[in-house]
Each structure stands twice: as C-alpha cells, then as structure tokens.
Write a structure and sequence with these properties.
The chain is an alpha+beta fold. Helix content is 54%, strand content 11%. Helix 1 runs parallel beside helix 6 and helix 13 packs antiparallel against helix 14.
Length: 421
Amino acid sequence: MRRTGTVTRLGIYLYLLYKVPAWKRKLLRQPEHTDEELRPLHDRAANAILAAATSMRGVMIKMCQAMATRADVFPPEFVERLKECHDSVPPKPWPVVKAALERELGQPIDAVFSEFSETPIASASLAQVHIARLKSGREVAVKVQYPDIEDIFRTDLRNMERGVRAYEWFDPQPLPLLPLIKELTEHVGYEIDFRREARSGARVREMFAKNPRIWIPEVLEEHSTGRILVMEKVSGIKITEKAQLLEHGIDPEDVVQDLMSVYVQMILGAGFFQADPHPGNLMVTPDGRLIVLDFGLSKELPEGFGMGLFELMFSMMTFNEASMMRAFKELGFASKTGDDGTFLLIARRMISRSDSGAFEGEFTEEMTDELFDAIREDPVVDVPSDFVLVGRVFSFLSGIAHTLGGRANVLQAMGAGGSRG
C-alpha cells in the first residue's frame, strides 16, 4: 500500500505539473509551451521521480536507470538527472543480507565460506556485493539479491501499468507509453534473474577466451542460484582514472582500443553484448588487462543487425543516401507516413553534430542526442529499441574514450581488433 500510494501521488503530481500550465495557456488562447519554456517543468518532474525512486529503491531505481537510456523518448533533463541512479545506494543491514544468503544456500554461511566480510564493497538497486573466501581457500565476490525484490517488482509493475493506462485514457499520446513500460520492465526482469546473468557472463567469457587482454570474471555456478552470484574476485583501476593508468605504465590509447574492440566484437560480430558499460563496470588491471563486469543487462540482437549498423555507418561516411535509407530499414526503422525521406533528415542532423561536420566512425554523445532530439520532434518514426540501446552504449563508450584522451571509432576498432587479440 505504501508503494502504491507513493506511485499514485507521483503520477498525480506529474500530471498536474504539466497539464495545469497547458490548460491556462489554452484558456488564454496562447501558443503551446516551447521546449525552452518546458525545461523548468522537466527539471521539477525529474527531481520528483528521482526522489520517489530513492525512497522506494529496488525496482524503481532500475526503472529510472532504464529511462535514462531512452533519450529518444524522455527529455534531456530526465536523462541527465536520472543518470544519478547509477550511483551506489546505501546497503541493506548485514542481518537482512545474511538471512537472505543462508535461505538461498539452504545452510549456514560457514558451511560454504571460511570467511565472509559483513561490509559490502558495493551496493546497488537490486543487490550488494561482499568479499568472501570459500572452504577451498579461493577468494570470491558474492552478489546477494535483496529479499522480496521479486514481489516488489510485481507491485511496482502493476502500479506503473495502471498509471500509464489511466493517463493514456484521459490524455491519448502520439507516442504510446505502455509498450515502453513493458520494454523497460523486460530489462529489469533480466537483471533479477542471476542465473541469466551467469549464462550471459559465461557466453561473453567464451567469446574472449583466447584474448589474454580481456578478463571476464568466472562465475562459480556450483555455489550460485537465481538470487546469489558467486564469482572470482577481481580488482583493478577504474577505467576513467587516467592518472592511475599512467602511473602503472598503461597507455590510455591501448585501453580505448581494447574497450572498443570488445564492444565491436560483441555487437557487430556476435550480436550479443553487455549493455551497461558505465565506468563502475569497467576496470583495468595493473598489467593492462581490461575487466568487464556485470552482465545483468545483456542483450541479444536480431540477426543481421550488425551488418545493418555497419552499412549505416559506411553510408554516412560516404554520404550514400540510398544506402542510408536501406540501412535504416534493415535496422528496423519505420515511417508511419511512408515517407522514408525522414530517415535522411535524421542522418543529416546526426552528421551535423560531429566535430568535423562529417561522420568518421564515432557515435559521439552529441550525435546520439541529436538523433533522439530529431525523433522526439518527429514522432512519425518508429525506432527499434535495439538501435536506441546500441546507440546509447556507443555514446557511453565515446564519453569514456574522450576522458582517456582518445576516440571511440567503431570502424577503426573493426580493423584493429584482430591485431590486439
């Protein structure tokens, strides 16, 4: 009831926040608010959503994280504010975590572990991570899911679906929100199932088994369950800490090249990738190996997606408009009016935001933001969610690369990948 009440109050507040000023303008026969005039409202709305998520934790935080990846739908103020949900949240008390752990193990902790640190090294929306030592002497990291998270997930989902259905009944929108809620919910559902995360990690680990520069932590499946993940302990330098990398004699350009090679191989090669490359999930060992963590949000891409993306990039470099339109269609874009020329306008806007005025193989944050701005302004285009997710991933990689003084050039990584692995 508490969670339902919180979501209901938030929904009413957001509805009135936007509708009251719009009604006033309509009564006074004034023009609708411009995007610039709406910015303060977007800020207030984003702050309200973040406050509700912080108080409710759990699934609401994951939903906000997912919303922050959909810049094609939500205004920039939402995306920027809700990115804060990626920061760690306060951990659960040890007695709560211990009870959940022993319930999953079906036996006392000391029957499996010779040592177990009560203080977590990381805490997030759905779980927290502790360092422990198995009876065999092997040091491991143990990811423990918070208790009752599945019940909370179902409750929050029902509340959000009810709210969206009511909103769309009272005020139909050009962009239906219910399918978006279901898509975001699917992403959260992936992360709740630790068995799926273990399989995803193993799959990517196999991809790079012969590449000594890439380290994907091994999951110890004999000790893991759907709510507990026991994996080899890894440690390293946060990927954006350029000064520390240099102190250890690591060339940041090599790190960028390895990072891009990993994601190009996953996305364009295997069609399966870790879709959450924020700096907390990426580290570098003192000897220069790239560590990729957390496969809770991993995504299978449709067959042919990689080729379609390559064709789009190459056609944008060569300004081949016929090839651009074909690539957009292959990727799943669709025009509700049948006018494919809209795709060209979107591509031109993206290219215009590149530093040189021409596409050179890097999806910068500015380019992807321009793409999402164009789509929000022209809702006649159906955009495949896979492309949105991949575009956001490449823009994240671009931000990391620029922090390290490099560039996240996808096409260059395709040519260089073989020489480094």
